[in-house]
Specification:
Blueprint lengths: L2 E6 L2 E6 L10 H15 L6 E6 L4 E3 L4 H4 L4 H20 L4 E5 L2 E3 L1 H8 L2 E5 L3 E3 L13 H8 L2 H10 L2 E3 H7 L4 E3 L1 H16 L3 H12 L6 H15 L3 H11 L10
Parallel strand pairs: 2-3, 3-5, 4-6, 5-7, 6-8, 7-10
Antiparallel strand pairs: 1-2, 8-9
Length: 257
């Protein structure tokens, strides 16, 4: 299988399993990824998703260049829309997503990582948008997400030059939240994912929805949305349980409703 999904309690771990091609994403693999992400997004039992690549060299080295070379403009448009759909699923699904970047995250691989809520990377991780070296440009969201994750000037530098960024610079620029030895990457990702999935699913979903608005729309409206979501949570069983458990000095038992 090109994509493997396994479960650890409420944590789903999705692995791109094409190490012979550095986990590059063909159209067929993107369609499989979209299908898996759609299923995960619709599964309320998933509290957090980890996405990673097989092997020790690459998270996702990018799109399948040999396949792209044969595409017509209309086929390229469909390919871009498919990649954007996968990225949008990661960004908008209720459960938070963690990219465990274990090597190269180039082109589409960087774009998939940027669509995740949190990015952890190994010391050998390399990010980049080298599309201009091929006479094309990013098409799966990097022109927007890289600018919003770092700064518009830094995003333009990487996109215009195709320069690659190693783990330490990725951390300094906000692309990655943590850099770890390769052997510690998945344990750290799992530790964080289990911690997130132990929280109230509805509280996490609303917090993600509000935070996603931080770099879009006007500030006044975003504050109103935050207040709306905050107040709605007080009608949930999870909020009642969490507040009661705190006063009773015990661990809460969240039900996701």
């Amino acid at each position: 299988m090109a994509i493997e999904v396994r479960r650890e309690d409420r944590v789903a771990v999705l692995t791109i399993n094409r190490p012979d091609a550095l986990n590059a994403l063909s159209s067929a693999l993107l369609e499989e990824l979209r299908s898996e992400l759609t299923a995960i997004a619709q599964d309320d039992s998933v509290g957090c998703l980890i996405i990673t690549g097989a092997g020790e060299k690459a998270f996702i080295a990018g799109a399948d260049i040999a396949e792209m070379a044969t595409k017509t403009p209309l086929e390229a448009r469909a390919y871009a829309e498919l990649g954007q759909e996968c990225a949008n699923l990661l960004e908008t699904m209720r459960a938070p997503s963690i990219a465990a970047v274990n090597g190269y995250a180039l082109g589409g691989g960087s774009e998939i990582a940027l669509a995740c809520d949190i990015r952890l990377c190994s010391e050998n991780a390399v990010f980049g948008q080298p599309e201009v070296d091929l006479g094309i440009m990013p098409g799966w969201g990097a022109t927007q997400r890289l600018a919003r994750t770092t700064s518009i000037g830094f995003a333009k530098e990487l996109i215009f030059t195709g320069r690659r960024v190693k783990a330490d610079e990725a951390l300094a620029r906000g692309i990655a939240q943590h850099v770890l030895p390769l052997e510690e990457l998945m344990p750290k990702a799992l530790e964080m994912a289990h911690a997130i999935s132990a929280k109230s699913p509805v509280a996490i979903a609303y917090a993600k929805e509000a935070t996603n608005r931080a770099l879009a729309g006007d500030l006044a409206t975003n504050y109103m949305v935050e207040a709306d979501l905050f107040s709605i949570l007080f009608s949930t069983e999870d909020a009642k349980e969490g507040l009661r458990a705190f006063t009773e000095k015990r661990a809460p038992e969240f039900k996701g409703r």
